[in-house]
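Aggregate trends can hide what the representation actually does to any particular protein. For completeness, the protein is quoted in full, as a sequence line and a line of C-alpha cells.
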Amino acid sequence: MRFLIDAQLPPTLADWLKRMGRDASHAQHYGQGRMTDAELHQVAIAEDRILISKDEDFFHLASRPGDRLRLLWLRMGNCRTRPLLTALEKVWPDIEAEFQNGQRIIEIR
C-alpha cells in the first residue's frame, strides 16, 4: 500500500509508515506543501496512494460518484504526534485489511 499524508498532519506519520515497510510521502514533498486540495487529490489518484487527512473536503471529494480517491479520514481532533501514532497503532491492522478488501473511505474517530 502507498500513502500520501496531507500537509496538516506531521511528516512523522510518513516516517512511521516507512518504518513499517510502507511507501509513504508527505504533502510537503510536493510543491513545498503548497498544493491545493484538488491537486493533492489528483496526485493521490495518479500515484495510486491512499490519502491520509483530517480535512473534510477530501471526504466530500472521495464521496462523489465515480471518484477513485482512497481516503483515511482522521476525525480525532487536534492531538500531538505521539497520541496520534498510538491511536493508529491500535487499529492499523484493521485499516489495512479494510483497504485490501476494497473499502475506499475509512473514518477514524
